[in-house]
């Protein structure tokens, strides 16, 4: 990672953040001429929470995705694919609709517990250094379970509007979030980022293999615990306020690692910055798209993120075809791409 | 981590500049002993190097004390060979890194991703990583597995040279001929017990090899199964 790129990241984030506050500018400028107080209130109470939530949620997804991938030694691990976001949503739904807890702190507590349970379950089912196939199957099982349990919780909820309410919330959106809600998500996100930052060196050294890492005095079991706790706190708090948002936690670390020479721990901050930039960008797109109505931002991240992921997958598969026929081609190809991803796909695709 | 064989209580001293070979049947406890010495998997007991307990050493000191080469050669991320070797010694000079890479014929592979290397090449990369901080003690788990004959010879020479420079080396092996050639001190571990600690000739003469491994050497030097 060059210093130049490191300096560009905060500048880019600052520009996106300011754009997110000011755009669309037409109505706000008109209002500022007639009623400055109201314009200020819109900026502070509507646009600031929205922009800040996008920034913090994106950074949390990027960093926790990078940490969880480093932990499992696998680029397919991410909060959305492996059921952590689903667990958080289930926890928040149970807290809000079945336990009758109100207020953002209660939701967040439910989300954090749900995310933590989902991650612990993943670790139990798949094991600490899971093969891609095992990890994906465990993730699919957990996602299916949390999805069904969320639907069940909503069906059993006393409120007849539970399904309708929850749909808009769970699809992932930053619209109409309040300053107290922002405070809750921000607390979770900052705590998660601070905890993950303490593990960057250890996650790098985990690339040497768990045995070597232990021989030089690291404790991978403790690293695992810290990463799981941090991810549960960050993703749990953010999902309980903004709903589940897919693909950022998967794609941002995969791209960020190509900037850090594939060092999984060093990729934490670049992945956080990229995640924040992607989510701010996606939210701007949602706001500025001339559709006459607002799309949930989770739809946009999936529409933008899925093709990137598919490109990574097909790229790896083309290289694997070369592998089968010519070993040198394989080595050169793996050099260019994220080799760990290639290997995962090799296990993942039945015909490979 | 896979469940390892439980070790019976044992005491072991390794002298500076000595080269010791650890042999034993499959599942006898070779890796368990090396894990216990490298403090892998929260083992019981104590290990001290130069009179200081390994568990109480700060990380920077510990890396200079102990180098470990695992039997597992699977590596998760496509780090370049140079980055991988430098990962636990970020303060190493470029000359020191170049020297280590050159010594293990890794210079041409320095920019390659480690996961695209052959198993034998990965062994050399793991060894280079362990050697770079110039550790006082070197523990190697089956380093000769997956090496071609030339590299087996080269590794033997390299280990002898490291021992001459003062490193205490313990290396596990399953090839008894290679083990006997490599060192004058052989440890035999069987079912978690350290059953012998002697010169290879003594072990053969005492019938310990035949008892533990179920093989013996005929007059012409060939191995045969003891029934």
Structure description:
The complex is a heterodimer of chains A (352) and B (227). Chain A has 352 residues and is an all-alpha fold. Chain A has 16 helices and no strands. Chain A has one domain (3-296): ABC transporter involved in vitamin B12 uptake, BtuC (Orthogonal Bundle), CATH 1.10.3470. Chain A has helices at 3-22, 26-34, 36-72, 84-98, 104-126, 132-156, 162-170, 179-197, 200-205, 210-215, 220-242, 248-259, 268-288, 297-325, 327-336, 339-348. The radius of gyration of chain A is 21 Å and the shape is globular. In chain B, strand 5 (137-140), helix 6 and strand 6 (168-172) form a beta-alpha-beta unit. By secondary structure, chain B is of the alpha/beta class. The N and C termini of chain B lie far apart (36 Å). A six-stranded mixed sheet of chain B has the order 4-5-6-1-7-8, with helices on both faces. Chain B has a two-stranded antiparallel sheet with strand order 2-3. Chain B has one domain: Rossmann fold (3-Layer(aba) Sandwich), CATH 3.40.50.300. Chain B is globular and about 55 Å long. The A-B interface holds A 73-74, 128-129, 204-212, 214-218, 257, 261-264, 330-331, 334-335, 338-340, 343 and B 1, 35, 38-41, 57, 59, 62-63, 66, 68, 70, 72, 74-80, 83-84, 87-88, 111-113, 115-116, 126, 129-130, 139.
Q: Could you name the CATH topology of chain B?
A: Rossmann fold
List SSEs of chain A in N-to-C order: HHHHHHHHHHHHHHHH
Highest CATH level, the class of chain A: Mainly Alpha
Alpha carbon gap, first and last residue of chain A: 33 Å
Proportion of residues in helical segments of chain B: 25-40%
What is the β-strand count of chain A?
0
> Which sheet architecture does the biggest sheet of chain A show?
none
State the CATH architecture of chain B.
Answer: 3-Layer(aba) Sandwich
Outline of this structure?
Chain A has helices spanning about 5-20, 25-35, 35-70, 85-100, 105-125, 130-155, 160-170, 180-195, 200-205, 210-215, 220-240, 250-260, 270-290, 295-325, 325-335, 340-350.
């Amino acid at each position: 990672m060059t210093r130049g790129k490191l300096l560009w990241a905060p500048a880019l984030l600052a520009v996106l953040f300011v754009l997110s506050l000011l755009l669309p500018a037409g109505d706000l400028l008109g209002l500022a001429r007639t009623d400055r107080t109201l314009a200020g209130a819109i900026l502070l109470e509507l646009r600031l929470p929205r922009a800040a939530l996008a920034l913090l949620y994106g950074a949390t997804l990027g960093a926790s995705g990078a940490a969880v991938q480093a932990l499992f030694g696998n680029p397919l691990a991410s909060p959305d694919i492996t059921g952590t976001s689903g667990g958080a949503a289930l926890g928040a739904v149970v807290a809000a609709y079945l336990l009758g807890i109100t207020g953002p702190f209660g939701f967040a507590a439910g989300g954090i517990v749900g995310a933590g349970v989902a991650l612990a379950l993943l670790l139990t089912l798949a094991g600490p250094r899971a093969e891609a196939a095992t990890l994906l199957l465990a993730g699919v099982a957990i996602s299916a379970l949390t999805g069904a349990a969320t639907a069940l919780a909503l069906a059993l909820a006393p409120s007849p509007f539970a399904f309708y309410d929850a749909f808009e919330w769970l699809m992932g959106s930053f619209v109409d979030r309040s300053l107290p809600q922002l405070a809750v998500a921000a607390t979770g996100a900052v705590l998660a980022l601070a905890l993950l930052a303490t593990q960057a060196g250890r996650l790098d050294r985990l690339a040497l293999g768990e045995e070597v890492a232990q021989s030089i005095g690291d404790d991978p079991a403790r690293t695992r615990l810290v990463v799981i706790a941090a991810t549960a706190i960050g993703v749990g708090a953010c999902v309980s306020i903004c709903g589940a948002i897919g693909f950022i936690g998967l794609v941002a670390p995969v791209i960020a690692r190509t900037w850090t020479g594939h060092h999984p721990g060093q990729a934490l901050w670049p992945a956080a910055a990229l995640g924040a930039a992607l989510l701010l960008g996606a939210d701007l797109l949602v706001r500025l798209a001339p559709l006459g109505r607002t799309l949930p931002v989770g739809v946009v991240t999936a529409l933008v993120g899925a093709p990137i992921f598919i490109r990574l997958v097909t790229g790896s598969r083309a290289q694997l075809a070369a592998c089968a026929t010519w070993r040198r081609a394989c080595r050169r190809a793996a050099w260019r791409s994220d080799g760990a991803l290639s290997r995962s796909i090799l296990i993942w695709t039945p015909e490979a | 981590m896979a469940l390892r064989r439980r070790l019976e209580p044992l005491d072991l001293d390794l002298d500076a500049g000595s080269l010791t070979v650890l042999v034993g049947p499959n599942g006898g406890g070779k890796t368990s002993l090396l894990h216990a010495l490298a403090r892998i998997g929260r083992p019981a007991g104590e290990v001290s190097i130069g009179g200081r307990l390994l568990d109480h050493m700060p990380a920077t000191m510990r890396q200079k004390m102990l180098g470990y080469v695992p039997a597992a050669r699977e590596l998760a991320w496509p780090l370049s060979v140079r980055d991988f070797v430098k990962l636990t010694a970020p303060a190493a000079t470029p000359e020191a890194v170049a020297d280590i890479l050159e010594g293990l014929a890794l210079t041409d592979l320095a920019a390659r991703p480690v996961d695209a290397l052959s198993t034998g090449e990965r062994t050399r990369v793991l060894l280079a990583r362990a050697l770079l901080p110039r550790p006082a003690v070197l523990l190697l788990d089956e380093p000769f597995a997956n090496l071609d004959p030339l590299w087996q010879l080269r590794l033997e020479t390299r280990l002898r040279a490291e021992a001459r420079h003062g490193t205490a080396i313990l290396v596990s092996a399953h090839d008894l001929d290679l083990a006997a050639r490599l060192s004058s001190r052989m440890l035999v571990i069987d079912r978690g017990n350290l059953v012998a600690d002697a010169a290879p000739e003594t072990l053969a003469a005492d019938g310990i090899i035949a008892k533990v491994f179920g093989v013996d050497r005929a007059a012409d030097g060939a191995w045969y199964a003891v029934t």
